[in-house]
């Protein structure tokens, strides 16, 4: 890094500096689970890359500052015009929302050796707890701050030089052959300035695409703040957290996917935010729910009542909470009702073998008699070559591929001293419990199992889950190894 970095913005200074799906999920939580308590846990999947004490102290100071961050009137207006599925009631809630890190988040540093003082390295633990509706917005800022702390104090052998050009070149390589993609790099970005530079480069690539008539398109960014700053569309629907929370609250893993889908449709309506995430408890279990008909009691009421908080039950009209409503089978739905698979625009692939996933979805849609061209959003550790590979495979099966490209864009650096790869952190924060029960994720790859091991084993047994291990799914080396030639 260079001395100029001291003049650049650091930390988090906007609540919208987060991924869109955190807002859409918070909207659902406000409606149905305003009183549910949850906890979150932090995992470093690259355990050899640790913070030193100076990085930890900076991180703690930045987390404390989150208490001062709020949504401005300009930001609220952006949400009103760009995210019309977020109701006035939810936006009113957001307008007065504040994080309370002193009460909700505890960070600790356990030294394991080193020179002592600021250079002493250690393990960091982060525990977040509180009401789900009040703590759901911590994940993305915390992850971004941890990454920024590491590369600000621990690995300083890098520079911003060339980041705009590099992003521009990657954008061109994706857009010219017709890839449709969005920027998904908030969680593991090197820092705020890097993501800003990357989006500048991607916008230049889109200008090239417009000028040259390329069929590819930069559809937007998952980061709501940067979408506002750069005049892009905020992109996103739902995360694993939604399915994990609903499953823990209900303790009904056999029906958790369907219940979570019902809540989603009950909140936003059919065909809105219609990309379904399939792998929380394995894609085969999800598809059993996806083929069922949408019951009438989860049809969202048109207009603002769609996303009123559940505490205002008089305004929910005919919408009944799926947890309290009976679990219907597809044969008992109204004859004219559609299935979730028919209504949803497509699915997101986030673990396991993408090529097998393409085949599975093609077979599923064929079995369900769905002729409409459906989307697959690929979002698992992508680069240009993988996007092109999955694009060809999906199109060969009559599916429309799109891509959410993250760390490859916002944390792609080399060491100044050697020219070799500067490896990103692979870090995650996941919901760990809800309503006092463990929240777990299984996914389509054993390397992404998350949560209490006993609960994971129990859920696998209950769902008849078939263990899968994908050769490309080693989380410790997902983004390369230190010293590799780029």
Automatic annotation (TrEMBL):
Boundaries of every Nicotinate/nicotinamide phosphoribosyltransferase domain copy: 181-293, 337-466
Pathway: Cofactor biosynthesis; NAD(+) biosynthesis; nicotinate D-ribonucleotide from nicotinate: step 1/1
Compositional bias (Low complexity): 301-311
Pfam (any one): NAPRTase_N
Span of domain Nicotinate phosphoribosyltransferase N-terminal: 16-147
Chain spans, region Disordered: 301-335
Coiled coil: none
UniProt modification remark: Transiently phosphorylated on a His residue during the reaction cycle. Phosphorylation strongly increases the affinity for substrates and increases the rate of nicotinate D-ribonucleotide production. Dephosphorylation regenerates the low-affinity form of the enzyme, leading to product release.
Single GO MF descriptor: glycosyltransferase activity
GO cellular component entries: cytosol
Domain of life of the organism encoding this protein: Eukaryota
Known EC number: 6.3.4.21
Record-linked InterPro entries: N/Namide_PRibTrfase, NAPRTase_N, Nic_PRibTrfase, Nic_PRibTrfase-Fam, Nicotinate_pribotase-like_C
GO biological process, one term: NAD+ biosynthetic process via the salvage pathway
Sorted UniProt keywords: Glycosyltransferase, Ligase, Phosphoprotein, Pyridine nucleotide biosynthesis, Transferase
Gene3D superfamilies membership: nicotinate phosphoribosyltransferase
Family matches, as SUPFAM superfamilies: Nicotinate/Quinolinate PRTase C-terminal domain-like, Nicotinate/Quinolinate PRTase N-terminal domain-like
PANTHER family on file: NICOTINATE PHOSPHORIBOSYLTRANSFERASE
Family: Belongs to the NAPRTase family.
General function of this protein: Catalyzes the synthesis of beta-nicotinate D-ribonucleotide from nicotinate and 5-phospho-D-ribose 1-phosphate at the expense of ATP.
Record-linked NCBIfam families: NAPRTase
Name of the protein in question: Nicotinate phosphoribosyltransferase
Organism: Lophium mytilinum
